[in-house]
Amino acid sequence: MDFGYSREEEEYRERLCRFLDENLTEEIARQNWEDRGVGSEGREFSRKLAAYGFLGMSWPKEYGGKGLSPTYEFILLDELGKRWGCHVPLDVGYTMVGPTILRRGSEALKSEFLPRIIEGEIEFCLGYTEPNSGSDLASMQMKAVEEGDYFIVNGQKTFNTECHYSEYHWLAARTDQSRGAPKYKGISLFIVDMDSPGITIRPLWTMSGERTNEVYYDNVKVPRHRMVGEKNMGFYYMMEAIGSERNQVFIPMRLYSLLQELVQYARDTHHNGRPLAEDPLVRDRLAQAAIELEVARVLADHSRWLESNHMPLSYEPEITKIFTSEMEQRLVDTGMQLLGAFGLLMEDSPRVPMRGRLAWYYLHSFMTTIGAGTSEIGRSVIAQRGLGLPRSY
Amino acid sequence: MDFGYSREEEEYRERLCRFLDENLTEEIARQNWEDRGVGSEGREFSRKLAAYGFLGMSWPKEYGGKGLSPTYEFILLDELGKRWGCHVPLDVGYTMVGPTILRRGSEALKSEFLPRIIEGEIEFCLGYTEPNSGSDLASMQMKAVEEGDYFIVNGQKTFNTECHYSEYHWLAARTDQSRGAPKYKGISLFIVDMDSPGITIRPLWTMSGERTNEVYYDNVKVPRHRMVGEKNMGFYYMMEAIGSERNQVFIPMRLYSLLQELVQYARDTHHNGRPLAEDPLVRDRLAQAAIELEVARVLADHSRWLESNHMPLSYEPEITKIFTSEMEQRLVDTGMQLLGAFGLLMEDSPRVPMRGRLAWYYLHSFMTTIGAGTSEIGRSVIAQRGLGLPRSY
Amino acid sequence: MDFHFTEEQRILRKTARDFLEANCSASFVLEMEKDEKGYKEDLWLKMSELGWMGLIIPEEYDGVGGNLLDLVVMFEEMGRVCLPGPFFSTIALGALSIMESADDGLKSEFLPAISRGELKLTMAHEEPDFTRYDPYSVGLKAIKKGDAFLLSGTKMFVPDAHVADSIICVARTDGQPPARYGLSLFIVDAGSKGLNLRPLKTMAGDKQFEVSFNDVRVSKGALLGRLDRGSDLLDSILRKAVVCKCAEMLGGAQKVLEMASGYAKEREQFGKPIGSFQAVQHHCANMLIDIEGSRYLIYKVAWLLSQGIPAVMETAACKSWVSEAFKKVVSLGHQVQGATAYMIEHDMPLYSRRARIAEMSLGDGRYHRTVVASQLGL
Amino acid sequence: MDFHFTEEQRILRKTARDFLEANCSASFVLEMEKDEKGYKEDLWLKMSELGWMGLIIPEEYDGVGGNLLDLVVMFEEMGRVCLPGPFFSTIALGALSIMESADDGLKSEFLPAISRGELKLTMAHEEPDFTRYDPYSVGLKAIKKGDAFLLSGTKMFVPDAHVADSIICVARTDGQPPARYGLSLFIVDAGSKGLNLRPLKTMAGDKQFEVSFNDVRVSKGALLGRLDRGSDLLDSILRKAVVCKCAEMLGGAQKVLEMASGYAKEREQFGKPIGSFQAVQHHCANMLIDIEGSRYLIYKVAWLLSQGIPAVMETAACKSWVSEAFKKVVSLGHQVQGATAYMIEHDMPLYSRRARIAEMSLGDGRYHRTVVASQLGL
After folding, report:
1. Which numeric CATH code is attached to B126-237?
2. Which domains does chain D have, with CATH numbers?
3. Model confidence pLDDT, tens digit, residues B18-42
């Protein structure tokens, strides 16, 4: 049992912290966290992160990586997260698409995409969800029909979030239309240039101000060599990646800065001459939030350790996801109880505390237990995989 | 909209309160509430309650009742409940069996049993649950086979709680053994003398010290005229009674005395010179409990009002049950937080606060969300009946 | 015991429902969030023609002479559609204040005009220096100067101050915050010299303001109720306003449940309606449980107050419970309706954003539980 | 980062599991609840032969020289079967106290005898006059008299005092409660004159006592650690004891989950295993979530403490979290297993009754959250 980091890992962390303290701003952190689109500052930060050698630590050397342990990636994600909840600016490519290309892509795809991902140059957007396929993803209807060296793709995706600034669509589409085939055995994955003719993007705006998109494909030609891995195996690739993706996306330390800001607010804010920090109710609730962050961290540590040591991931990342996302909602409510009516104020309001971050977090928090799989599906997965209970649906 | 009581009702309440203050002791209250068996004091109290005219207010005059509104029954249950969580001492007969006899029993059964119930003389025990039929009650296997003027009954019941001191078993048994018949269409209800030859009772002791029983039937002869209503209609009778039963059993005011004792403890108990009642955390939690009691009371009031006015009961008593039973668990936890380690002490321990009631309540509280139907089944009933959602099983 | 509404109340509800469904769509509400004024005058006038402004105002002042339960019905329906505009401020904070004050002169001056839809009011109570809700934490000073008072200080979270004709200002005429003694209420003309507004920006796009008073002069006739003893009046005003706010929340919560359970019946995944999954069923059941408890508690408190019973504990219990219940309902509503309901154009965010506004309005759960605790004898 | 136990720890766990399953059935535990002594000496000796008493004791004192993580493994297994008896008192409160005190004389005197299973210890800390847990609310007085101290006062919730050979008593030698300064720890011979025990009756039938000290005389050699500065020592003892208590809870919670999920797979209603109902699945999933969080937090704290890192915040977080988690797990365990598990003969009540004992032992969640709050800088 060892909860420590090696000396090399600690040195990496120190170097990284110095870099982030100099180069990372709240504005950059928010571009990604709030899905506001990564602008020029974010792109520049991404390239700089790569240039200073902080990207690709665990990736194979032949594609520009350093071939070290995934632990370094988690250190990166933690240190980014501690700073205004930041993430790798081009995170879909880096944390989700890249690993699957590495696992399942052809040599050509690897050579084409991996170095550019590690250089922080390109971004992907996920093309999974459809209007009638949310929790039941395998029921997707987007069609890709083979014609010579191409697939002709038609259909609609929705809630595809990074599409308006990504270079590539990481698209799942049905390639086996024969009747009677199990629905999860007829899906393939493709890398599609977002500027391909026939793609139309329509913005959807969320209640917390992020942009996501509907994406329409009208006879879009996708070269055959842009299919990832084997035909009709896409759903399996999506599922085999999901544990690692949860490990990279649900980072408890991203809640650290909110907790710290609330503690600071409680210390600095007085009511009738006494700091709120003296109120036993305030103390109890903030302590509970800090405790839950400790719990989330060890859950993530365990799940990361499995991944770092190439052990199979089963229900563990699902636990991290559920705990972290639900903890976020509780933390936001704790914040709201602390700030009272002042917590209602948005960032450009007079008298707004904490730069309006809390109001934004509240609006955002509804998504955390839905996006990337609902807590309801997740709990059934945990019961079935983690405890061997029979299927419920 | 009117949340008040009529002058007659208030006068009844005042008269009742005077009676209870004189005649009801904690010991009597606990005999029933804790299912310790109603002893001679309890029996005497029961007869006295009847003799003073507090039983049967809403029952028809021809069987010894007064033919008034059920509101009087709820006043009785509330005032009993406020005093150490007391209930009508012989409550199964009075609140569950009696009403079904009245609705579905033959004139002979009515004449035989109803007056004695109203006189506080006899008790029944419910004979529903079997080892393999809990939530899925309609799957019961106890067999009653018609033979001339009798039914011959064989099989086993479990968790039949009042059997060791009741005069009669209110038994549900399968009277249609034909294959393929829907399981809920082959059950009948019987009134069985507990001293019938062939009945064996084995005690089961609960974790909070109550006695319940396993009951074995070995060729028990039950006269045909002791069947209640029509043959094979028993399950429907059980279901039509369930709403009213919940109204009579889940009495929010039964939690009033626990809450009051906790408030008193917080006022009287000091830590380092200050009463616990000054701690904002204690205040917040006890206030929350009081609020929940207010909520439980209006939920019950609404459900009772439906019953008192002969409107159909659907999901409403289920809501009262779930809310009240879960509130009890939260209240007990609030109490435990308040009393700390002292809350662990049982009633005959040195230094025990509150006569050990809290420890008992804790042990008892696990049953409240299981007995008479689990919260899980209940919530599905609410969703399906109250909101029209499709069946889940 | 009677849970029936009167025939008149049922008609009132139906009229209100029909009118508001026709005139207050979700897109209209979103439009009003962005609109500087935040409501439409023609809608206001139509509501006035229907007699809504005068619903609670006695007939002798040109009102309809309804009671608090009538008003609860109205606010439920308004909460159901998230009606924007100064109705709550004018009626629940304004008209009720004047009615509670029992000052015949002020009643004659204000109530008929309110009834006719010609006058809008609001109340300025909370202050930026007090970071938690407490009705007696008032520092804005009213200093007597001859026959008049000079008001100085800053108020926060004043709803609809930009369109109010008069502002009922809670001021300190004696003592120090948070003393209950020493508060007085004044009706201040919104056009008074020295009054300044700064719009706040809340997550629901409702119209709340910081209002600063710089030696604002009011005549002694502007005093509502008794000097220094305003807290008694304030308490009784706030209790009624609280019930109205709870009714608004109830209407919203009920609508959220209808949306969620409707979606659960229609949306299919894995080949069947998601409403047949027990997890979704239980979410919906939990919403219904919380809503039913809220509903009857609100009706009970409204009935108690309309009977002249102060109901201090019940009112505080009601605000605490309903605030929490509405929050839980919107959370579950989002959880059942998934990503679609997270989009700003969906109706759902209207309610989840307003749930927090309503939670904090007139005291959050934390504050009201302190009231309940005191009432318990703690 | 490494979540593997060592090979030795895995063997230790297996040995302990096999031995305890064979020697500590649920009916044995129930029997011991009623037994006045509460454990069997022959079982104690067998455990001693297996080296368990000396597990954490350094080899130089005839121990095995294990670390805190070894002890955590052991307590997990003991918690799994609700092992009755004075092991926790003797080792986690007793041996660890002496080891932390760094007093070579006392170590030589006590540790080898503990190792050999010949000596039982406990700690007397809480007091009846202090109604909430706080380690510095100690009023029992130790007054210096020549070369000795006279101890007077009453202790509460002293576990296994009836079988302890010595009692580590936390006494006040200076100042007033709840001052942190002025506490001193003494090892008191259980046969001392003036010591009186009264058995308490708890809901779990564990053996806890009120212990009164009436001018109990101890020599100055009985002082453990420094005079008046006992709180430093006490804190470090309690942190380790807390982890051991949490490990006990973890073992119990894990067993409850196994019972509940096993039952959910086998018990059929409505023609299928109840574990295929989503509501039951989610109860089981919630148990697993709470247990996994508890597990790794406990291991982390044990690791931190075994590295000599004080881990004040993490330890307090651990006790608060694990206490709450165990409570939630037993609630859900009951809910899944229905009426059957409510019977006293069922294994389930063993755990639900002990969950509350463990919650209150060494400070409840409320207390530990005050520690976390202070650590946060609040």
Report:
1. 2.40.110.10
2. 7-119 (1.10.540.10), 123-224 (2.40.110.10), 231-375 (1.20.140.10)
3. 999 999 999 999 887 777 778 899 9
pLDDT range class, residue B43, cuts 50, 70, 90: very high
Contact C249, C80 (CB under 8 A): no
Look up residue B218 and give its two tokens.
């070995």
Q: What radius of gyration, in Å, describes the C-alpha atoms of chain C?
A: 21
Question: Residues 355-374, chain A: which have Cβ within 8 Å of D?
Answer: none
Separation CA D57–CA B313 (nearest Å): 67
Please report the residues numbered 243 through 282 in chain B whose beta carbons come closer than 8 angstroms to any beta carbon of chain D.
Answer: 269-272, 276, 281
How near does any CA of chain C get to the CA of D320, in Å? 23
Enclosing H/E stretch for A261:
helix A256-268
The identity of residue A85, as a single letter, is G
A:D CB pairs within 8 Å: 153
User: What is the distance in angstroms between the Cα of D200 and the nearest Cα belonging to chain A?
Assistant: 31
A384 interfaces chain C, CB cutoff of 8 Å = no
Q: What is the percentage of chain B residues whose pLDDT exceeds 90?
A: 95
Is pLDDT above 90 for B178?
A: no
Output the pLDDT for position B119: 97
The domain segmentation of chain A, as residue ranges, is: 7-89, 126-237, 250-387
B-chain residue closest to D201, CA distance: B349
- Cα separation, C84 vs C81, in Å, equals 9
Q: Is residue A32 over pLDDT 90?
A: no
Residue A37 has pLDDT above 80, yes or no: no
Do residue B393 and residue D270 have CB atoms under 8 angstroms apart? Answer: yes
**Whole-angstrom distance between the N-terminal and C-terminal Cα of chain B?**
38
Residues of B in contact with A279 (CB under 8 A): 280
Give me the residues paired with residue C210 across strands.
C198
How many interchain CB pairs under 8 A, A with C?
A: 133
Residues in C touching B299 (Cβ below 8 Å): 292-293, 296
Do the chains contact at C279 and D278, CB–CB below 8 Å? yes
Looking at CATH, the fold of the domain delimited by A250-387 is given as: Butyryl-CoA Dehydrogenase, subunit A; domain 3 (1.20.140)
Q: How do residues B278-336 score in pLDDT, each as one tens digit? A: 999 999 999 999 999 999 999 999 999 999 999 999 999 999 999 999 999 999 999 99
Chain D touched by B3 (CB under 8 Å): no
B348 touches chain D (CB under 8 A): yes
The CA-based angle D352-D357-D361, given to 5 degrees, is 145
Measured CA to CA, the distance from residue B136 to residue D259 in angstroms comes to 21
pLDDT for C137-183, tens place per residue? 999 999 999 999 999 999 999 999 999 999 999 999 999 999 999 99
Measure B283 CA to nearest chain A CA, in Å. Answer: 10
The chains found to touch D (3+ Cβ pairs under 8 angstroms) are: A, B, C
Task: Assign A31 a pLDDT band (cuts: 50, 70, 90).
Answer: confident
Which residue in B129, B133, B366 is closest to D342 by CB distance? B366
Residue B9: closest C-alpha in chain C: C1
Tokens of D360: 């209150």
Tallying the residues shown for chain D, one arrives at 378
Contacts of B265 in chain C (CB under 8 A): none
CATH number of B7-89: 1.10.540.10
Residue A311: CB atoms within 10 Å: 11
| pTM strictly above 0.90 | yes
Report pLDDT for A178.
87
CB contact under 8 A, D281 and A392: yes
**DSSP, residue by residue, B331-358:** HHHHHHHHHGGGGGB-TTSTT-SGGGHH
Average pLDDT in chain C: 97
Residue B393, pLDDT above cutoff 80: no
Apex CA B226: angle with CA B222 and CA B229, to 5°?
A: 130
Inter-chain touch D257–A284, beta carbons under 8 Å: no
